[in-house]
Amino acid sequence: MSRVFNHRRILAGGIVAASLLSIAACTEGSDVAPPATGMVNQTLASVIGGSRDMRGLSGALSSTGLAMVLDGPGSYTLLAPDSEAFAELDDMAEALAADERAPLLAATLRNHMLPGHLTPDTIRDAITATGGPVEIRTLGSGTMTFDTDGKELEVTGPDGTTTTLTGNAIEASNGVLLQLDGMAMSVGDAPSAS
């Protein structure tokens, strides 16, 4: 009985913390630019698919079946390399999708997907509230660690690869796309999903 009570307290505390972080993200001093007109009415998959700068990412998501997830009602945060970084990965992603290594590409992409609607402000607020780095479990089997370095928001992947958030968050009807200056983990090191 005590164990059930503790789980309920933990769940209630988590809900309160998430609510406070969501409220904090709506402050006037937000440094996240508002999304482009109409983007909030589109799903993450539609936003990515409609961007010529994200063709490689769109193709990788489609070939692995993950575009359907990002087109659904669930709320997700996708950590994606910016167009410059993804251009370098385009050929590799195409090669992985074209052969038996497609599951490795899918595992890598799942490890760049987080549950929920996370903006840079909510992540910064969580870092401030905990007094240090914040770990968030991915939809794969990894954990992403967020921390600040001055004004920069850094993401460290499961294999220790560190990247930096670039540009503004792109908000969609079912989540947020956060662009990185590179992959948050090496494709060769992608843990398989359990």
From TrEMBL:
Q: Where is the signal peptide?
A: 1-24
Q: Which InterPro entries match?
A: Adhesion/Biosynth-related (IPR050904), FAS1_dom_sf (IPR036378), FAS1_domain (IPR000782)
Q: PANTHER family, alphabetically?
A: FI19380P1, PERIOSTIN-RELATED
Q: Does the keyword Signal apply?
A: yes
PROSITE patterns registered for this protein in UniProt:
FAS1 (PS50213), PROKAR_LIPOPROTEIN (PS51257)
Q: Tell me a GO cellular component.
A: extracellular space
Q: Which UniProt keywords apply?
A: Signal
What's the protein name? FAS1 domain-containing protein
Q: What is the protein's species of origin?
A: Alteripontixanthobacter maritimus
Work out whether the entry's keyword set contains Disulfide bond. no
- Domain FAS1: start-end pairs: 41-184
